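Input sequence (98 aa), recorded before submission:
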Amino acid sequence: MDAASFETSVADGTMPPGLAPGLRALWMEARGDWDAAHRIVQEESDADAAWVHAYLHRREGDLDNARYWYRRAGREPAVDALAAEWRRIAAALLAADA
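Predicted structure, token format:
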């Protein structure tokens, strides 16, 4: 699946089957369910989930918590627009999942 198809699935409201946890969390957050997205990444311990977790706390406005999760993910804290970060994470996770 490419990034455009992933974004289309969000707009259509039909989650593609077999998504990795980080992608499922991004999908849920984009559909407005931050709590479900957070639950998904809380259950995971890999760097991808930590990256999504950081994004979620940044979206929430909890920047201290976001910085913690960026460190866990081995990433610098994002400073660009939230939508740009969402797309960057989705593209990276989709490429890794291919």
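Checked by second reader. The mean pLDDT is 96.
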